[in-house]
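Protein entry
_____________
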Amino acid sequence: MSQVYRFKILTQGESSWSFLEGMAERLEVFINSDESQALQRSGWELWQTSVLNDKQGNNGFMLLFRRPIGESTS
């Protein structure tokens, strides 16, 4: 069984940053999506998350998964 997470974002500054609360909710839904959970069940580790912004206000998220492929020789 894979782990399900809840996330919180803390910010400082003016009220213009209040949109981050909504982004945290969207990120939580994405991380707990069927596709993400299936990757985790098959041995992939959720390693990093990123917020994407195209300067026109279209925001998205990127989830980066990793899985070991062997031992390092260095």
The radius of gyration is 15 Å. The chain has one domain: 15-66. The CA atoms of residues 43 and 70 lie 14 Å apart.
